[in-house]
Amino acid sequence: MYGMIGTWSMATLGVEKASPLLAQGQSSGDVVEEAISAIEDYPYFKSVGYGGLPNAIGELEMDSAFMNGDDFQIGAIAGVKDIANPIRVSRRLSQERVNNFLVAQGAQEYAKEQGFEPKTMLTARAIRRWEERQAEVARTGRLTPYDGHDTVCVVALDQQGSMAVGTSTSGLFMKHPGRVGDSPQAGNGFYVDSEIGGVAATGLGEDMMKRPICFETLQLIRAGYSVQEALDRAVYNFVDLLKERNGQVGEFSYIALDHTGHYACATNVDFQFAVATELEKPQLYLAQPQAQHEVKITPASQQWIKEYYTRIQQ
């Protein structure tokens, strides 16, 4: 059995491109890298890679991570500028014995040393969005960076039984320069073990980094829970606890894929995820939270997908 799962509607592009590689017997690491690179390259996904959302001073800072589920090697970068594909740099770092998490200038120098392509990632379209937000802040006196933050995450299982996970994001729109969320943090933003499964997160990083839910989910699967049961217990128990202790809770959305190819999602907001397996062609699903932490999951229609692309390209 092989399969892959990715966060948000944008993951459909990566899943459609990379899932044939799984069918051809390629490695989960190659599949994760290729899927996320395709998403990073697409200029209309406003929260990842090329065309991503700027920070408070109009600069595009990106975060990314990669993890190999066979040997637990991790590579991550944060606060980087003008690297064409952060996920490729993250994967290369995961192959190093030390210096696996690099930030800002150090990460950019490493990418240059390794021959990765530099690219101006801030687009005119993103600058216009930033200018519009600056004008709104000047008019209202309110800075609301929460509008625009989605992380692309991909978990893959290959025919050899190996698993990998990757993440990539430009973080919160209008964030303070240097801000880093959960996405490049192992245990919080992602985790994978080829003998158990992989989990990844997208949402408000400041809340999601308060507990290593991705790691906890895998421990519950190891203890005997199904992938859906494990994800539900790990996510919703903490969402309720955080609400009780903190009085508020941000967006929490998680995807999971176990080592047998079964997948799951848990979310407290409207969410989408894309899937392809040995038994299932690439499909985008819509997830809508219901009462009692239940989630209604329905396949997205071709009309829904068409309207989505029309909307993001306006």
Tell me about this structure.
This protein is α+β, with helices and mostly antiparallel strands. It has one domain: (Glycosyl)asparaginase (Glutamine Phosphoribosylpyrophosphate, subunit 1, domain 1, 4-Layer Sandwich). The chain has nine helices and 13 strands. The chain has helices spanning 11-23, 28-41, 86-94, 104-113, 124-140, 205-208, 213-222, 227-246, 302-312; strands at 3-7, 62-68, 74-80, 101-103, 152-157, 163-169, 190-193, 197-203, 252-258, 263-267, 271-277, 280-289, 295-299. The protein has a nine-stranded mixed beta sheet with strand order 4-3-2-6-5-1-11-12-13. The chain has a four-stranded antiparallel beta sheet with strand order 7-8-9-10. Strand 3, helix 3 and strand 4 form a beta-alpha-beta unit. It is globular, with a radius of gyration of 18 Å.
Which shape, going by the Cα principal axes? globular
Estimated share of beta-strand residues: 25-35%
**Strand-pairing-aware structural class:** alpha+beta
Helix content: 25-40%
Distance between the termini: 39 Å
What Rg, in angstroms, do the CA atoms define?
18 Å
Which fold name fills CATH's third level, the topology? Glutamine Phosphoribosylpyrophosphate, subunit 1, domain 1
Total of helices? 9
Mean pLDDT: 96
Low-confidence sequence ranges: none
CATH architecture classification name: 4-Layer Sandwich
